[in-house]
Structure formats: structure tokens, C-alpha cells
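Write out the bound-state structure for beta-D-fucofuranose.
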Amino acid sequence: MKKVLGVVACAAVATSMVMGANAEDLIKVGFAQVGHESDWRTASTKSAQEVFSEENGYDLQFVDCDNDSAAQLEAVRGFIEQDVDYIIIDPIVATGWDTVLTECEDAGIPVVVIDRTIDDSDKYVSWVGSNFLTEGKACGEWLKEYAAAKGMDEVNVLVIEGTNGSSAQIGRTDGFKEVADAEGWTILDSQDGDFTQAGGQEVMESYCKSYEGQFNVVICQNDNEAFGAMDAMKAAGVSYGPEGDVVLVSFDGNKPAMESLLAGDLTAVFECNPLAAPTVEAVLQQLQAGETPEKETYMVEGWFANEDVVSSITIDGEEQPVTQMTDEVLANRAY
Ligand code: GYE
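---
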């Protein structure tokens, strides 16, 4: 606890030294970020730091909570103590929020939630993020079409989940499972890889031993877990990608994963856009102007594949395109 508050205090001192007399004109924003577990997270942090810069009129108090829920609650309480103007939270887990959000409300500090959702309290003014359930369904619907096109007669799946209890993990798991259950696929196992490369590698190493020769699909709930899974499969002599034994897919779609997709290591990628900060800034500007922002704003994202086998999928009755990754598509990616 002391450590987290210490980080906040140091950041505050540094900012006031830089800004001198103008510091009080800046809008003070506290951002309790999840951590630094993945490429997606790095892109999210970079975007927030660029958007909430001093040049743009903000005094950003940034706390990396290192994937520790208790530290994240303390970070929010630290922001209340500093009497910031706004608090942005990317909730590590979806529950356990009502008490601290009530404290923010009592202190008169509006909270904006970014990326992952808070599912057990509505004491925040706005949320900006992705539809993780739709992402999970997209993965299932794509696999359904892909398996049919490739004549796969059995679909035996291993899932490497993201941080358990996070809304990203819950949505992607439930969305995929909905299609898997309807199709009668076998989900051999589904374990927590904590959205990290090391976590993905560890889970995949144990899967390779326990399910040797039994699986033909590996679903990684983020890119970094997929990189770890690749290392584990390589070491175990399991081939993956369009020409391999295993269909390997990931969620997020940061540049390194899109390069893997183009190279044919990954077979499909379900995008999750990490650049929500500009939309959050628009929300703060609305609040500054006394306007009421939207309660929920969804990021726009797409679905990508290595081969041109499935050109579209239908999610909840809506047909959506699947884009084949090419050099040109890759060159136009923003993250
Ligand atoms: O998929 C993963 C990150 O919350 C959507 O968190 C985010 C997830 C993202 O660690 O890479």
C-alpha cells in the first residue's frame, strides 16, 4: 500500500516541478492502469500518456497496478486523497468495486471506466471499451466456418484464458463457449495464463504433456499468451498455423501478432482496440462542459485471418467481414 501511494506522490511532485505556476490550470486526472502484462497494455498506456499530456492541458497521475487488485483499490483511494478532478479506472477484475466507487462519489470525483468493465456497481459516469462477448463469439463463429471449409471432422480445443475474473476473460470465454456448445466441440481444458507470455508458455507446456496428440485447436485469449504457446509447442514438436497440426488463434491483434498472422504462425486474430484514451478524453471534455456523456461507448474492431477461406461470419444475426492479412493491411495498422 505504501509503495503505491509513494509512486503517486512522486509523480505529483515531478509534475508540479515541471509545470510551476501553471499546474493549477491543468485538469488533474488519476489513471489506475491494470499493469504492463501485454503488448495491448503497452499500447493502451502509451495512448493514455499521449492524450492526457501537459500540452493537452492535463496533469496525469498514472499508477501501474501490476495486476494486483488490492493495489488498484489503494491507487483509487490515493487519487481521492489528492483530490484529482477525474479518476480513470481500467478494472483488473470486474467485481469488488462498489465501496470504493461510493467513496469517489462521496468525494464528488467522477469516475470513467476504460477497457474492462465493472459489473457490480454503476457508480461511474461512463465506460469506453470493447465488447468481449462479441469477440468470443466471433472466434467461435470463425472456427465453425473454418472447420467446415477445411473438413475438420473433430474440433478438440484447448483454451488459454486471460486473467480470471477480468471482464475480458469472462466475455471471451463465454462468447466462444456459446458456439462451442452449440456445435458440440470438445473443450479439453481452459486454464488461466494471466494474459502474459510466460503464463501462456507455462499453461501450454502442461497442455502438451497432458493432452499429447488429442488437440487440434488452441485459443489464446491474448497475443502474448499465443507467443508463449508457440514456444511451448515448438519445444514439444507440435506444429501450428495453416499448414500445421494445430489451429492457433489469439485476441488483441497488436502488430507483432499481425506479423505472426501474415507469416502463418497464427491462423486467425480477433482484434481488440487498445486506443480508447481519445474517446475517454472526449468524455472528460463533455463533463468539463457540464454535458452528460454516453454511459457506454464501444470500440470498433475487426476479425483477421491468414488464409482467404472464410470471408465473413454472422454474429447475432449480423454478417461481419473477415479480413485476410496482407502486407498492405499490416502496413496500415495503427498499433
Ligand atoms: O486483451 C490483454 C490485456 O483488458 C482487453 O488485457 C484487455 C486485455 C487484453 O492484458 O492483452
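---
The pocket of beta-D-fucofuranose is lined by residues 37-38, 40-41, 115-116, 162, 168, 195, 222, 251-252, 272 (CB under 6 Å).
The chain has a mean pLDDT of 94.
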